[in-house]
Specification:
It is built from twelve helices and six strands. By secondary structure, it is an alpha+beta fold. Helix 5 links the parallel strand 2 (139-141) and strand 3 (159-162). A four-stranded mixed β-sheet has the order 1-4-3-2.
Length: 333
């Protein structure tokens, strides 16, 4: 069972310092083989990176440009809808921007503002539910969580968005946007929304409408198929087990203010440290500039570290990361 502690307080700022060490003083046994272990970093399996390097229109057997990708995209969307349990009446769009700028686009559309359905990041352990906005409309940005796999959730939301990167282990660059029938109808009724509006996105053939690249489509297809074929219903239990592993290998550490915890259904855990914000920045810069670990910074918690718990974070590397932090924070010196 996944361990959830959405009520954990913000880590207290302490006087703990970070003192850089020489690389030759770091034992090989604590160097992660996969450096993309931070919760802010999308770890992409090697086979998928190889696919990205080879991908493009030629892999699909197509001429350069978006012409002819409609059939492949339709097949991809069919598998994606099945994976997340999206009802037939809902619209599913692949938007080639990240969730934050997409929310900015929605914030300029009258129908989205009127019904208060500009998606915002979800937080805590509470399941997003309908009736948030006027007349029971609802919206949520599910990025960085396993909520898109929650049974029936997308069917309950009028507008849902999520970056598939952390969930599917693919390079971020696409946002999955789902709309209920009434949300799609309201978007289609919006006048003069332009080529980047939701109305144009619903009409894929509209001139100037942005479309994902063939590379993005290939990567997303790999991620959807891999997760669909690997028992996605077990993901929550696996994440809970990895959280237990991180806790077991950091228990009693003097540089922590408490045990690592997970916020809601986040695909990462928070390590509350005694480090001051400046020391956290120095530590993160040290490991990233030396290609040891990427993505440990948690912008919402300047005195904490963030560690990924998805399937691309191997157990051995998580143990190595705990050992590396001990060395860098003088626990093992």
């Amino acid at each position: 069972m996944a361990l959830v502690d959405s009520e954990s307080p913000l880590p207290a700022t302490g006087e703990r310092k970070f003192t850089p060490v020489e690389l030759y003083d770091i034992p090989d046994a604590v160097l992660p083989r996969e450096p993309r272990l931070g919760g802010a970093c999308v770890a992409v399996p090697d086979d998928r990176l190889a696919s990205l390097a080879r991908s493009g229109p030629a892999v699909l057997g197509l001429r350069p440009g978006p012409v002819g990708t409609d059939g492949f995209t339709a097949s991809l969307l069919k598998e994606l809808r099945a994976l997340v349990g999206l009802p037939d009446g809902h619209s599913c769009l692949l938007v080639p921007v990240l969730p934050q700028p997409l929310a900015g686009l929605l914030a300029r559309e009258k129908w989205a503002v009127a019904h208060d359905v500009v998606p915002r990041p979800v937080g805590g352990a509470v399941r997003p539910f309908s009736a948030d906005g006027p007349e029971g409309w609802s919206a949520a940005d599910l990025s960085g969580t396993s909520w898109p796999l929650a049974d029936g959730l997308l069917a309950e939301l009028d507008v849902a968005a999520f970056c598939p990167g952390p969930l599917l282990g693919v390079v971020p660059g696409i946002t999955v946007l789902t709309l209920s029938p009434r949300a799609a109808a309201a978007a289609r009724a919006e006048e003069d929304s332009g080529p980047f509006g939701i109305r144009a996105l619903l009409d894929a053939d509209a001139p100037g409408t942005p479309r994902p690249s063939a590379s993005d489509l290939m990567m997303l297809a790999h991620g959807v198929r891999t997760l669909a074929e690997s028992h996605p219903e077990r993901l929550e239990g696996e994440i809970g087990a990895r959280l237990e592993l991180v806790r077991a290998h950091t228990i009693g550490r003097s540089w922590l203010t408490g045990p690592p915890y997970r916020r809601g259904r986040d695909l990462a855990c928070v390590l509350p440290t005694l480090l001051a914000p400046a020391a956290v920045r120095e530590l993160v810069e040290f490991v990233e500039s030396r290609a040891l670990v990427y993505g440990l910074a948690d912008p919402d918690r300047p005195t904490a570290l963030c560690v990924g718990l998805g399937r691309t974070s191997g157990d051995d590397d998580l143990v190595r990361l705990a050992g590396l932090l001990d060395v860098l924070l003088e626990e093992a010196r």
